[in-house]
Structures are given as C-alpha cells and as structure tokens.
Amino acid sequence: MSTLPLTEAILLEIHQSLGCPSYPTTKKNKFATGQDSLAAHKTMGEEILNAIFDALDMDPRARVDAIDNLTEFWNAYKYLELNTWTFAADQQQVVWMLLGYFYMPGLARRAAFWSLEDTLDMGMPGGRFWYLPEPREVDGKPSLYPPAAQVLDWLLDLLGMTLEEFADQRSESTDGGHDGLRRSLYNWRKGTTPDLSTIDKYFANELLVDFKGAFALDSSRSPAEQCADALAFVTRKQLTADQLRLEIPMTQPGRLEAILDGSVDDDEKAAFVAYLARRYAIPSPHTIRQRLLFARMVQDGYTRLLKFLCPGVDSRCADAQQNKLLQLFAIYKFAYNMTIDGWRNCRDQGEAAENAWFEEHLPPWDARGLYLSILPSQRETANSALAELLTRHFAEVQPGAALEDHVGLGAESEAPIIQRNIERMKATAEEFKAELELAERLKTASPWRTLQGEYRYRVVSQIAQRRNLGPKVRQAAIQRLRELASSPSETIQAVLFELDTFLNNDRSNSPKDARDSVQALLEEAESCSAYKLWKAATLQYKAKHLLACNDFVGAGRLFREALETGLERNCGPLHGEVARDCLAVEVANQKLILNNHEKYYREMLAGGMMTECEEIPSIEETARWASEYFWDTLYKPYPGVPPQKRRASAAGRKMLEELMPLFFTGDQDGLQAWIKANRQLLKSNLPDVDGNSVLMLLIKMRTSFAQGLHKLPAAMLEGEQQSVEAMLEQWRQFLGLLAQEAPKQLNITDFKSQTPLMLMAESVDTELVRIMLQAGADPEKQDWQGMTALHSAIKSHANSCVDALLDHPCNLDNETVDGQSPLHTAAWCANKHAVKRLLQLAPHLAWKRNAQGMTPLERVEYLIEEPEALEALARDLNKNGRQCASMQELLSIVSLLEEDLPEVSN
C-alpha cells in the first residue's frame, strides 16, 4: 500500500504517543482507514480527541483552538489527498515526503503563530527547542538529547539539586513511597520514554519540594534593584551569555553580553529581568506533568517514526546520514524561526509585511518546493501546486529506493540538494511553458504535425487531458503518447486516456465498433506489466464497458472491486468517483438500504464528491441524485445495444396513466379492478431509490399535485376547479380503499423508514388515519429519526389525528433518536391539546429526559432562555415548511406543565 495517511490515522498516532487507553486493532484500523459507519466513526473520533485533550489537561478554550487548527489542517490535507497520485511509491517514501513538504513546515508555522505574543511553553528554555531531540556530546561522542531528559534537567535545574538528591528527598518525604523514582529518572535520561502512570505518581498535585534554583521577582523592589537581583542570580548559577542564549529568547549576537556588562538602557534591562523571571519561575505540579506529557508524546512519536523510516538506527544516533529525522527537525526549526523573526522585524508594519519578510528570507530553491505549503503569497494555490509536485515525485521514484534528502545539515551535504532542486524547478517551468505554447499552436495548426515536435511525455499527457482542445487533438495527443511511452506505466496511461474518450464522452457519435475497440483496449491494459498500478482505473472503465453492454450486475461487481482496489494507493479523485458509480448502480432500480449503501456515501464524502455543495446533502438526497446520475450520465449503451428503461419511472408512469382517468370519472368498479389486476405490484416496494410502495407513492404524488395546483394562477383553472377537486377527492378515497384491500402496503416503509400512516398523520387526514389503523397500520413503527405517527401528528398540530392514535391506542414511550418522547415533542412545538392528553394518559412522561438530559419542561425553558437555540430550531423547521412556536406559546406550555406536573416520577 502507498496512501496518504488519513487525518484519523494521525490522531491515533498522537493518541498512542500520549499513552491513552488503546482500542482493539480491528477498530483502530477501521477508524484509521475511514471504513467504519459514519455514526461509529463520529463517536470514536470524539472519544479520541477528548482523550488527547484530557491527557494534555487542556482547558476549554485551548480545546476550541485545537479543533479550529485541526479543521484548518484537515481541509488543506484533504485537498492533497484528493489530488495526489502515489503510483508505485512505497509507504515510507509517501510518509517521508509528506513530513518534509507538509507536516513539518505547517506545524512549525502554526506553533510559531501560537508563540508570537507569549510562548505556550513559558518557563522552558527559550533559545532551544526542548521538545525535539537535540544534538549534544555524551562522553565525547555525538548523541541526541531526548525531550523527556531535557524536561527532567529543566526541573532539576529549578530545584537546584542533583537527580540523586531529588529522588532521595522524595523517597524520604513519602516514607519510601517513591523508591523507584531514581531508577525511572535514570532511564528517562538514557532515552526511555516515560510511562504515564509514573508521571502521575511522581508528580502528583501533592508534590512538595523547595525550588532553590528558581528566580522570583520581588515587586516591592525598584527596577534597578530587580535587575541587580537578576544579575546576582545569573552569577550564582554561573550562567554565561552563551548559556543564557539557550535559556531565554534573547538570541541576537552581543545582546546578552551588553546586558551582563551593564551597557544597555532600562527597557532592555526590564526585558531581560522579565525573560529571566519567566524562565526560572517555580512550576506547579500541573505544569511539570504537562511538560513531561508533551515530551513523552514527541519522544514516543519520534522513536516509532524512526523505526518506520530508518529501521535499525538507534534513537540517539546524531549522524544525519543515518538518522534522517534530523532533517525534519531542521525544517521545523527553520520555518519556526523565520516566522518569529518576520514578526519581530515587521510587527509594527502589519501581517502583510511579516509575510513578505518571511517569504523573502526563504531559500529560493525551496520556496516553491519544501516550503510551498506555507508560502503566504500562494495561500490559494499552494495545495494544488504541492499535489502536482508530490504526484510528479511519486511517479518517478522507485519503490524501495533510499529516501531522498530534504535538506543538508552542512555545506558539503547541502550543495547537491540545492543543485537538484534548482534543476527540478527549471525542468518544471520549461515543461509548463511548453504546454501552454503547444496548446496555443494546436488551436490553429495540424494536431499530428504539431505534436510530432514535442518529445516530452509529461507535456503531451497534459495536452491529452485538456478537453477544451477538441476530440481530434485529444486523439492525436493519445497517439503521440503511445509513440513516446518508454515504460509500461506510460503505455497503460495512454490506453486509459483512449478508454476515456470512448466511455466518458457523448456517445451519440460513437463508431459502430466502439464495443470491440473498448474490449481490445481493456485487454491491452490488463496484459500490461504496470496493470497493478492502474488496476482501480482500469476496473472502473471495465465496469462502464459492462454497463454499456447492459450487464448491470457485472458492472456493479467491478465497481465494488475498483473501490476496494483504490484503497491500496492514492489515485487522486478516482476513489470518490468510483464510490459515486457504486452507489448509482445500486440504487438505479432499487430502494436505498442505509445499512448496505452507507459505505458508498461515506466514500463519496471522503473522496471529495460533495466539496462543491453549500451544505453536505444527506444520504437520501445523495441517493436520489445518484439514481438520476445513473440514467442521465453513467449508463450509455453502445450502438446497437437496446437501451434499458428505468423500471421505477416506467412503473409510476404506467400506474398514473391507468389511474388518472379513473380518478376523474370516479369509476369505482374500475379502481377495484385495477387493484385486483396489480396484486403482484402491491406485495413489495417499487423498484425506485425512495423505496416507495404503491400506496406511499400515490400519497406523495397526490400531495405534490395538490401543492402544485395551489401555486397556479386562478385563471389557469377557470372552469376546471370543481373537476380537479373532485378528482383529488376520488384519489384520496382510493388511498383508503387501497389500504383496506391491500393492508400489507400499510407497513412497507420507504428509505426513510416512513409509513403511509405517518404521512397521513402529518397531513392532518383523520379519516384516513382511522381507516389505516383499522386496516392494520402499525402505529409503533419509527422512521430513520425515531419518529412515530404520533410524533408526526403532534408536530403538525393535527389534534384529531392525535386523538385517533391515542384512542387506538399506541405506545407512549417511543422516543426519537435524540431521546424525545411524544411529550417532549408536544412541549417544544407548543401543542397544548397533546400536552394535556399525554399528561392524563402517561404522567410519567413529564419526568423523562431526552439525550441532552432535559425533561419536557426543561426543554421548553431552555428554548425560552436561549434565543439562539430557538432561532436555530425555527430555521430548521422552516426548511421543511413548518413554523416554530412563538415565545408566548412556549410560555403558555411552561405554565401548563408546571400546573399539571406530577409530584412524583414513575
């Protein structure tokens, strides 16, 4: 596999590095690959985020900020995912490129923004990156300084004691309760990742120690005296200017030397004192734990990432040739420091000046490469350009090849990298220029002759993808690609371009031999040694080929296979398109089945198929669209293949053609005869995406017809009003007749699990509600939101329908998916009649709590006290043509509930 890891997989890595409680492997894999149901995925995502926030002990505001930043990251990353092809690159190569070109620059830039005014890690060394493994010497040999060890030494420095002294003191103060502390601290220094339980045990809130190495400002002393105290503290700690540069953010050459010899002004002295007081302030146990937890997270992630990218390399290895992760740290530090420096130099001139400074100081060979994703001037186009850059790299890299260097950590290693990047920039620019010039010439010149002058496969492939140049140009470009192809992968790409011209374009002018031509191209693609890389795309075309041959079953099987194959590597937008085609084939002639078909909807969401929508459509709306898409776009039979007709449309049209004359004439015998003649049709759902029964479809059609009439100008119905109204009444009576003659129809649900009884209760037709109940309609059935016919009647203020249902009787304890009992619904929609009857019949409902933990009374009080919540409810109801209860109506419900509220809950 070679895919861009999903954001969910990254969250799981953080979750694991923080030592949060783990999930079963199968559950983790489903979440990491987006293969779980939407509901389960949402629940697990919330659990993981909350566990991460809890582990880091983040306050509510920090959690909101983190979610905002994660959302911003997810949106940018999703674009990359949907526009990048990974070809044969292996997973190490994919992750390595993402780390260097996206994760590290973006993380550094964001972390720097967080630290512009006040550093988030106030009190930690301000001149070095304490949370990253830092190069240092140990016993004269190069090594790395682990983050946990850096936090430990920071703490011991503030305590003013050695590791051994601290361990002994803690053990004595707890009567031997911390005898294992010394061993744990030794292990942390050696690079062992701290255990969560150890951190909590040794640094609990009850930690009582004397911080002899800390520095606190005495507010009663003058600024000059405070500065003298600070300098005395520096002398006592024997801190030199070079050492202080690693501890406080005053890193400019000569700045600290001037402070230490007293040759600076009062403002500079005050800044020095403030920085020193922050760095050497006494930390709380909570702060100590947070630092250790953060260090643990980074250290654990570093160790596991090193094992994945550089297997066999020791975690303390400081050799940049072996430990390539040192390059990532260099990228992070550079981007972070440039962001901070841009702010320091230009903060008085505004954000635009800061961004300009930042961009000017990026290495020109990396500005539109390594740091492209954070280039301020390319904010709108950076992700598109980066996706193209990554795709180009993955197309050229061989699986198993060594990870290419991102940056050099010395002049000797840096020079060849710079030269390589410059050459790549030059080649990309030349190809882009050639493509534009070639496209322009092709508008007027002979396609074949013009293309013969271009020898770069990539340039011609871009021309082949330009649909605005016409079919002749595309065909000539494809032929030229076949001539230029120098590898099996390039050959099969040309074949796929040709398949596209047959299967994705208007087929009204398709040649008679199109079927045979496509079959030959598919066989050529499948026999190519690069087929595995292009299997998903080939299968999609093969499925379309079978569709064009009227093999709907075979096409569906191949679309599903293409979807599974697409999980093996990133194929740009292909995965979402195949998911769309899977759903379209499934619902072309049958009901949407949520449990079976949600996976295709989920993959459409993940595959970016809804990005152009202002609001994400529901699965039901998407399924209706997919059904239309199938018949309007996807299904295109070959010349000579008899086109299949949409069974649902044909059935509905035939039914109306037969019934409408009978409705207009009021022919009861004819209607009875129609029912007898269509007994088979009345046994199950119709073959349409909505899953309507005949009765359900006739109810919906009648409602739609009646609503359409009301919108027509009166003049259009002049002389026909009575006739039309009589027809609608006959139609309505037929619904009752059908309910009695074919009672099985009453409990056949549509794709929203709605029944005819629910629709009649909602439309306030008491007579039909009673007829349906007597004929066997089940009032306990619940739709996809958990609504029953009683809920529907209450919402519509159909009080006679409410009475019919209550007198039938029906279960009063049915709740919606969000825990709303019938009394909850009656309360928030201000249906006084329903409230009174429900309190009489089931007083215990007054104490039922919904999913938000509110009783009916509390729910109404919440709407009264929170105007924004009431406005949101009103907007939601208006979308469905309903009016929200007024404030006055809600107040009257409160009075009613308080007056009749039972004293004791059942």
TrEMBL record:
Stored InterPro entries: Ankyrin_rpt, Ankyrin_rpt-contain_sf, NF-kappa-B_inhibitor
Known PROSITE patterns for this protein?
ANK_REP_REGION (PS50297), ANK_REPEAT (PS50088)
- ANK repeat ranges, renumbered to this chain: 752-784
Q: Name one Pfam family in it.
A: Ank_2
Keyword tags: ANK repeat, Repeat
The signal sequence is none
Put simply, this protein is called: Ankyrin repeat domain-containing protein
